[in-house]
Write a structure and sequence with these properties.
The complex is a heterodimer of chains A (707) and B (608). Chain A has 707 residues and is of the alpha+beta class. Chain A is elongated. In chain B, strands 1-2 form a two-stranded antiparallel sheet. Chain B has one domain (3-10, 24-440, 501-507, 513-594). Classes of the chains: A alpha+beta (707), B mainly alpha (608).
């Protein structure tokens, strides 16, 4: 009777960072999904409400300006004076400016809402079997369950709420949350005890203690997050808002005082007229940073959205922003830097043993070993020595499972006792059977250890055959990514339970900047605190309960969805794919978010130069015709010039919506080169672009007889 | 533009460059509590001062305490200067018998604020208004004190960047005392001696009455000029002993004296950039600030010198030779002293407005439109091109904060400057300072452009009324001597100069009326305290922050790239704020002049 048992719990839904994600909670939608655009269009008008708009000082000023010009237009129409065609167009375009900005924000929000709707559909009101104090089971709706209740979940049941497995083990389908179809194991105790409401038990049964009240479950939080209901402005966003509000105030002053200055000029020269309200408001709206003012909140929402598209749930915008600032990245060795499992890379036979003999014995002893290590031995024997996996059921074979006590596994077959295991354990095994160890046994084991590998000794009864070199395989492309991090100014630190020798070897191979060997959770916490004391921001990933303090301490704590509730609550982000490498992407998204803000602010301010050239000569054409020298674009008339500037100002908001939602292009690079590039594109570009833009609009306006 | 002219500018700049490091290291040492070579002589005076005033040298002040001390000191100084002016008639050292009738309450208010805020705007002419005692005990003392206060604030702000996780920004009283005793006093004594040697007068004589060659009677003013002259330049005060300021031969007799005066203006502000670098532990940061200032300074001189040398095309058209030649300086010599010529005058005008000095060696009103645009724009950008003593450094740091905030975002991090994160509080305070400055200049200039004062223009006897309470009845612009854009420049310059705490006058406008005295007084207060207090607040918040170690992901705030960004920010913020106003003033005047249109000038005393 052959039994098979794995020495470790089965690997659960492991995703290689390099492979594409199998499924996604939040599917990337086309940027202008018709459904979303419809919703955003409607919301753009709702957002005209001045009570809500006042939170955005820039757009509020535009709205007040639009209202003002409209009132003056109505007056002029009723008394039949003024340049009505001009004023009408100005009013319309000013309203459009507000609407376009609203649309940008509404687009970003609508994308979130659409995702929330998808999530809400998965939230069915299930029933739960609650265990009463008297031991009886009663069936109650999930909405009646309170934190602390214990429920029974059997095969086919939907788990009624977030909780922790207190008894039993079960496979659970969590595709609702993770989008991943492969079931995962949930068992009591340890780091795999957390279950999420709405997920389905596929086999076995478990007792679950509910840990959240209705409305506060993970799913509820996710819905609230993606909907933006809990959206609060992040610190940097607030600071930027202050900057653009301050600029708005300055421009308000510059334009408001232009009136008395003009009155003086007109009376002193005795020609022309002081500019009208429509023209003054136009200048004001053109000058205040409407581009960034209109797109700022959209950029923030879209940043959260991008994080979500990577299947990461950020608990706050602040966390996303902080990830752009991270200086130090703590990366767990296993699963992040290396593939989760060690693999056999070499058979080293002792004297008097052929490599083929060793490979044969190692393969036989591993045939029933379902661990990745075991499987890799079978594969290596096949590749190196052409040994195929054999059908052994016709032999008298008895498999010895791995146990933590013996620290070896193997097979008794045809009277042979084949064993493989830790070198110490095999040494004892051989000696107990009266065998002798070859002289270089220790030496080879040490050499492999020093190189970052694990020696796995193989014995046939009292005869030591050789050593299989198991090696941690650094993930493909890891070294390049670490290099990119370094270019971004981020130190990466490898955390491992290995001894310092092994750790140093792998650290060198992966190219990380530092490592923490034989790390206990307390060591991690101390390390983080020390880094923070030096002014660094630290990001880390974790899944175990013992990771929780460090996750809470870190500035960015990315918890794995497979981890415990404690870990998920301590971190400020949860990766639904439980792929620790994703920390690197999150950092990039955080940076991209900040860059997008900076770039559009620069662009917005740089645009003002051209607008002055368009409007100032137009304003004083009659008083000071010589100022026409500033009309370097050769705009046709004062009216067409002002209109063209206003229209350009409005259209640029819409034109930049995709950029705000997608974020500017980000390539990992040092600060100096990023700055040079972005100043060139958004600063210098921002100065240049409006000139042809305004010129073109002026041509069109004249062509269409609109001015 | 002549070779000689270029040489003068180059020599000046090289002297400043050479003095920056020694001055900067001396100040860094002094304010970080180290011993300097002057300690054996002056330490006793310092400790004695603390004993008399009752200051504990080692007490640290939070930013609020620091600002409160500064305000208390300024209020006290204001009251003292005000009282001394009004009471000068009964006080000694008054050979001319000047009394309170020469100083109206609004003028005394304006002058007191002016000297307390390091502005030295003068709505009066010293020789006909103030006694020797007032000049010395009130004005010269304030020249020291307001300058020292500016240095103190700059040091406190630098500490905000240099220190970490502390509340204290230093002690205002200690910084004030050290700046006075170790920096201003010794340097001004040296400079005063040098200036006397060049011919600047220093006496208490009554004014001399002489008979001119033509037989006319002329009164020649006298007084203790050299002592005030040195600190006037060194403390970037700019308030002349005489109305003619440094154009007066008794204040500024020779080209060499002129060169020294300009060097005195820049020596402390330029040195402070180096001090900042030393204090934050990275000298490159200081040199970057210096570099940005140097580029803007040279660009300003270039434009001003070019415009002045080019002169007025109308003269060319009239066939009047205005090219530089062996026999004449050429260019626009109106309002300039022949002993200085075009280059030294343009250089002086630029330097005095780069810094918040405001001393003049010629009439700014007579500069060509573009030549006049340079000083005007220099002040409007906040006088950060080296700037006033102390005020220049904290001013350029404000722009650095703004530049870092916008540019820093573009590298994908929360912006940092010299290791300090620039967040909400710092941005808020920087914007507050910028808005306050713009508010003061634009709003008050706007009001004066259209203000109209009611009242009878003729009194009961049919005589024209010279003075209703606020201003002569009619438009406030009636105080102008020129029409059109040039008149507008005069108003704009007055409020710009007051807000910028510069104090130089464009002239051509009678500001000694209650309306102008009071509004200009308000502008000076806003420009000084609404700029400086927000910066102290920001420094207080910065001092509490941890220093973030610099990595390759950090925006480098040293080197040409950042200097360029800084220059761009200064110019862009200034230009965007003031372009409409400038377009209606010097810019349009320039084009009109090119077309041959001039705006008549009715002569007024210089420096009015």
């Amino acid at each position: 009777m052959a039994t098979t048992q794995a020495p470790t719990p089965p690997a659960v839904s492991q995703t290689d960072s390099t492979s594409l994600l199998p499924g996604k909670l939040v599917r990337a939608r086309p940027l202008f999904d018709p459904e979303i655009v419809r919703r955003a269009l409607r919301d753009s008008f709702i957002k005209l409400n001045p009570i809500t708009l006042v939170k955005n000082p820039v757009m509020f000023v535009v709205e007040v300006g639009a209202a003002l010009t409209t009132i003056f237009l109505i007056r002029d129409v009723s008394i039949g004076s003024g340049a009505r065609l001009f004023e009408t167009q100005i009013s319309i375009w000013l309203w459009f400016t507000v609407l376009f900005a609203n649309f940008a924000e509404a687009m970003a929000e609508a994308r979130g809402k659409a995702q929330a709707d998808t999530l809400r559909k998965t939230k069915t009101d299930s029933m739960g079997r609650r265990l009463c104090n008297n031991g009886k089971v009663e069936i109650v709706p999930a909405s009646k369950l309170r934190s602390g209740d214990v429920v029974m979940c059997e095969t086919g049941d939907l788990i009624p709420g977030d909780g922790e497995v207190v008894e039993g083990i079960a496979t659970v389908d969590e595709s609702v949350i993770t989008g991943e179809s492969a079931p995962v194991i949930r068992e009591s105790g340890g780091d795999r005890s957390a279950v999420t409401g709405g997920t389905k038990v596929l086999s076995d049964h478990v007792k679950v203690r509910i840990t959240s009240n209705p409305g506060e479950t993970f799913l509820d939080k996710m819905i609230a997050l993606v909907e933006g209901a809990e959206r609060q402005k992040t610190p940097n966003e607030i600071a930027l808002n202050i900057l653009i509000a301050g600029l708005t105030l300055i421009f308000l002053l510059a334009v408001a005082t232009l009136h008395p200055f003009a009155v003086y000029a007109v009376s002193s020269v005795g020609a022309g007229k002081a500019p009208t309200i429509a023209v003054l408001v136009s200048l004001l709206v053109c000058l205040i940073p409407t581009t960034i003012g209109g797109l700022l909140s959209a950029i923030g929402i879209a940043g959260m959205d991008r994080v979500m598209q990577h299947n990461v749930l950020a608990m706050s915008g602040r966390a996303v922003e902080a990830s752009g600032d991270v200086n130090t990245l703590l990366l767990d060795k296993t699963g992040t830097i290396t593939l989760g499992n060690r693999q056999a890379v070499e058979f080293i036979a002792f004297e008097g043993v052929t490599a083929a003999e060793l490979a044969d014995a190692a393969q036989l002893s591993s045939l029933a070993d379902e661990t990745p290590e075991g499987r890799s031995i079978v594969v290596l024997a096949k590749e190196k020595h052409g040994l195929r996996g054999r059908e052994i059921s016709d032999h008298e074979a008895h498999f010895i499972p791995f146990s933590a006590y013996t620290r070896m596994s193997g097979v008794d077959i045809d009277g042979r006792m084949l064993r493989k295991g830790a070198s110490g354990a095999i040494a004892t095994f051989v000696k107990e059977l009266g065998g002798e160890l070859p002289g270089n046994f220790e030496e080879i084991s040490d050499r492999i250890s020093r190189g970052g590998g694990t020696p796995l000794a193989v014995a046939d009864g009292p005869r030591a055959l050789g050593i299989v070199h198991l090696k941690d395989i650094v993930k493909g492309g890891m070294k390049e990514r670490i290099g990119q991090l370094r270019a971004m100014g981020i130190r990466s630190v490898m955390i491992t339970g290995d001894n310092p020798l092994t750790a140093a070897a792998i650290a060198a191979e992966a190219g990380v900047d530092d490592f923490l060997a034989q790390a206990t959770p307390a060591d991690k916490l101390t390390y983080i605190k020390r880094q923070q004391a030096e002014g660094r921001l630290v990001a880390m990933t974790g899944d175990g309960t013992n990771d929780a303090p460090a996750l809470a301490q870190a500035d960015v704590g990315l918890a794995m969805n497979t981890g415990t509730t404690a870990a998920k609550e301590a971190g400020n982000m949860v990766d639904l794919d439980s792929n620790p490498t994703k920390l690197i992407e999150v950092v990039a998204i955080g940076k991209q978010l900040l860059i997008t803000r900076g770039a559009l602010t620069t662009f917005s301010i740089a645009n003002d130069v051209a607008k002055y050239f368009a409007i100032i000569p137009a304003m004083f054409m009659a008083t000071y015709p010589v100022l026409g020298r500033f009309n370097i674009m050769g705009l046709h008339t004062p009216q067409s010039a002002v209109l063209a500037a206003v229209i350009f100002n409005a259209l640029i908001i819409i034109a930049l919506v995709p950029l705000a939602l997608r974020g500017v292009k980000y390539r990992p690079a040092g600060a100096a080169s990023l700055l040079r590039r972005n100043v060139l594109i958004y600063g210098i570009g921002g100065i240049i672009v409006p000139f042809p833009g305004i010129w073109l609009l002026d041509q069109l306006l004249v062509l269409l007889h609109l001015a | 533009m002549t070779q000689n002219g270029w040489l003068q500018i180059a020599v000046f700049f090289l002297i400043v460059l050479a003095l920056t490091k020694p001055m900067g290291s001396f100040m860094a040492r002094l304010f970080e509590g180290g011993r300097t070579f002057l300690h054996p002589v002056l330490r006793r005076l310092e400790t004695l001062t603390y004993k008399v005033v009752g200051v504990n040298e080692s007490t640290e002040q939070r930013w609020t305490q620091y600002a409160a001390s500064l305000l208390a000191f300024s209020i006290f100084s204001f009251l003292f200067v005000y009282a001394l002016q009004r009471l000068q008639g009964v006080l000694p050292l008054n050979p001319q018998g000047l009394n309170s009738g020469n100083v109206s309450p609004d003028l005394a208010f304006n002058t007191a604020i002016s000297f307390v805020t390091n502005t030295n705007w003068q709505s009066y002419s010293g020789e006909s208004t103030l006694s020797y005692l007032t000049q010395m005990a009130a004005l010269t003392v304030q020249n020291f004190m307001s300058g020292a206060a500016g240095i103190a604030v700059a040091i406190a702000v630098s500490r905000g960047f240099a220190r970490q996780k502390v509340n204290g920004l230093g002690n205002f009283w200690v910084d004030l005392t050290r700046a006075t005793i170790y920096i201003l006093l010794p340097l001004s004594i040296l400079a005063a001696l040098f200036l006397s040697a060049q011919g600047v007068i220093q006496n208490f004589h009554p004014y001399t009455v002489v008979k001119t060659v033509e037989g006319a009677k002329q009164v020649i003013a006298q007084g203790p000029v050299a002592s005030q002259e040195a600190i006037k330049m060194l403390g970037t005060n700019g308030g002349g002993f005489f109305g003619a300021n440094s154009a007066h031969p008794f204040e500024n007799p020779t080209p060499l004296a002129n060169l020294l005066q300009m060097v005195l203006i820049f020596i402390i502000p330029a040195g402070l950039t180096y001090t900042f670098g030393l204090m934050v532990g990275d000298r490159r940061q200081g040199w970057t600030l210096f570099g940005a200032c140097a580029v803007m300074f040279l660009a300003g001189v270039l434009v001003c010198y070019w415009a002045e040398q080019k002169g007025n095309p109308t003269l060319d058209r009239l066939g009047i030779a205005s090219r530089a030649s062996a026999t004449q300086a050429g260019g626009n010599m109106e309002g300039k002293e022949t002993r200085f010529g075009i280059a030294a005058s343009a250089l002086f005008a630029t330097v005095t407005t780069d810094a918040s000095c405001g001393a003049v060696n010629g009439a700014h009103d007579s500069l060509t439109p573009l030549g006049g645009l340079v000083p005007l724009f220099n002040i409007q950008t906040g006088e950060v091109i080296f700037g006033g003593v102390g005020a220049g450094l904290y001013g350029i740091l404000l722009y650095a904060v703004v530049a870092v905030f916008i540019a820093g975002l573009m590298v994908g991090r929360t912006p940092e400057y010299v290791g300090k994160k620039i967040e909400q509080k710092e941005v808020k305070m920087a914007m507050l300072a910028l808005v306050a400055t713009a508010f003061s200049i634009l709003l008050l200039a706007g009001l004066s452009s259209v203000a109209h004062f009611d009242g009878p223009t003729k009194d009961a006897k049919g005589q024209p009324v010279a003075h209703s309470y606020w201003n002569p009845p009619g438009a406030a612009t009636a105080n102008l001597n020129n029409a059109g854009p040039h008149g507008f420049s005069e108003i704009l310059y007055a409020y710009t100069s007051a807000t910028g705490n510069n104090g130089s006058a464009f002239g051509g406008i009678n500001t000694n009326t209650p309306w102008y005295n009071l509004t200009l007084g308000v502008a000076m207060l806003a420009g000084r305290f609404l700029f400086l207090i927000p910066l102290l607040a920001a420094a207080g918040s910065l001092a509490m922050k941890k220093k973030v170690p610099s990595t390759s992901g950090t925006l480098p705030t040293h080197g040409p790239l950042f200097a360029t960004l800084l220059i761009g920010t200064v110019i862009l913020v200034g230009a965007l704020t003031f372009f409409p106003a400038l377009a209606l003033g010097p810019i349009v005047e320039h084009y009109l002049m090119a077309g041959g249109k001039l705006f008549a000038f009715a002569p007024l005393p210089l420096g009015s």
